[in-house]
Design goal:
Layout: E1 4-6, H1 12-19, E2 24-29, H2 30-41, E3 48-52, H3 61-73, E4 81-86, H4 88-100, E5 106-111, H5 114-120, E6 144-147, H6 157-173, H7 175-182, H8 189-205, H9 220-229, H10 236-255, H11 259-268, H12 279-288, E7 298-304, E8 307-312, H13 315-324
Parallel strand pairs: 1-6, 2-3, 2-4, 4-5, 5-6
Antiparallel strand pairs: 7-8
Helix pairs in contact: 4-5, 5-6, 5-8, 6-7, 6-10, 7-8, 9-10, 9-12, 10-11, 10-13, 12-13
This protein binds nicotinamide-adenine-dinucleotide and magnesium ion (MG).
């Protein structure tokens, strides 16, 4: 399985030494540089520092080219190690650069957001945006991933919440994680470890997303549509949370899943259970989603906690689920979620 290490940042030098790299370069962004780079550098010999601006808009080919150029100037080779230190934007670019520069260099990832620790840094998908999200990319497993819990101490609450959307997804996919979340008091190392290991296991069984890996799209088909309709004002994790509720209603109608369990779970995590859109606008957006393969809407829905089905779902079923989870359908709630359109 993919090599995941759970430990403090001070573990980094020993992970680097094991690879015996010719050179070591760190890729990070301006925010993470200020907070964590000094600590990450400690014990590493002559590290090269590459800092990009903070923001999804910099996950681009322009940024990639600037990094390739720097690596060339620094005499970086295939035996050199690129370490991506940051959130999913940085780990995605680091992976893409490492997989393409001279046909592949050594790669280490040190994810510093909750989302990257449980999701983006795991599984070997790399990429940049190009006329659409993640349109250009590769599959490239890192030589190591260091999950250092301490880095989350500086992460804003909003970003923690964003990561919790994926944590909620794992809780529906895995009984063990569900049990951990039922006593949720705050994000801790045990939850992060189980989520990261769960994803790594799924990916190991299906590295190129031919089948099983698609279960990780639970909540995402509608989640993506909701994100887009909100012009990305609703963050990914919150959109996924809303999507999980929709998927749960579909599961309820088709397989007798108890959607009350999802509602309870999301409330425990402080995540939204309703979306602010009409069923028809979401359906239209979903049809455009790249996961709507061959014109069919392939959908992941829970049968019970720890068990999902991936199959084509009839539009009427989806429509009922979207209506039941829309704010306007009303179950007495009066407030729309923050950040919603
Ligand atoms: P991000 O990388 O933009 O990080 C969010 C914000 O947190 C940024 O402003 C960042 O500078 C800041 N930050 C990072 N670490 C911090 C820390 N320790 N303390 C304070 N601030 C910190 O966003 P993200 O949510 O981590 O990742 C989203 C990206 O991940 C998207 O581009 C998405 O496509 C990608 N992604 C990839 C995969 C994959 O499998 N490759 C999976 C999921 C998401
Ligand atoms: Mg996601």
């Amino acid at each position: 399985m993919e090599s995941l290490t759970f430990g403090p940042l001070s573990t980094l030098p020993s992970l680097v030494e094991e690879l015996n790299p010719h050179k070591v370069a760190f890729l990070t962004n301006m925010t993470v540089e200020r907070l964590w780079l000094k600590k990450a550098f400690s014990g590493i010999e002559n590290p090269i520092k590459i800092v990009i601006p903070d923001g999804e808009e910099y996950k681009s080919l322009e940024t990639t080219m600037a990094i390739w150029k720097r690596l060339q100037e620094e005499g970086f080779t295939r035996k050199s190690l690129l370490i991506g230190l940051g959130g999913g934007v940085v780990t995605d670019i680091a992976g893409f650069v490492a997989s393409t520069y001279m046909r592949g260099t050594l790669l280490g990832l040190v994810p510093t957001t909750l989302l990257a620790q449980v999701d983006a840094a795991i599984g070997g998908k790399t990429g940049v945006n190009f006329n659409g999200k993640n349109m250009i990319g590769t599959f490239y497993l890192p030589n190591f991933v260091l999950i250092a819990h301490e880095t989350l101490s500086t992460l804003p609450d909003e970003e923690i919440r964003n990561g919790l959307g994926e944590v909620a997804k794992y809780a529906l996919l895995d009984k063990k994680i569900y049990a951990l979340i039922r006593n949720f008091k705050g994000i801790d190392e045990a939850i992060i470890r189980e989520c990261a290991l769960f994803k790594a296991e799924v990916v190991e069984k299906d590295p190129e997303e031919r089948g099983l890996r698609r279960i990780l799209n639970l909540g995402h088909t509608t989640g993506h549509a909701i994100e887009k309709l909100s012009n990305y004002r609703i963050k990914h994790g919150l959109a996924v949370s809303m999507g999980l509720m929709v998927a749960s209603k579909v599961g309820e109608e088709l397989y007798g899943f108890d959607s009350g369990k999802t509602e309870e779970l999301l409330e425990k995590l402080g995540l939204p259970t309703k979306h602010p859109f009409g069923a028809d606008e979401i359906l239209r957006e979903m049809a455009l989603d790249k996961k709507a393969w061959y014109g069919k809407i392939v959908f992941v829905a829970p049968v019970e906690i720890g068990d999902v089905v991936v199959e084509e779902v009839a539009e009427e079923v989806l429509k009922r689920a979207l209506e039941a989870t829309s704010y306007d359908s009303g179950s007495g709630d009066s407030q729309k979620p923050e950040g919603s359109a």
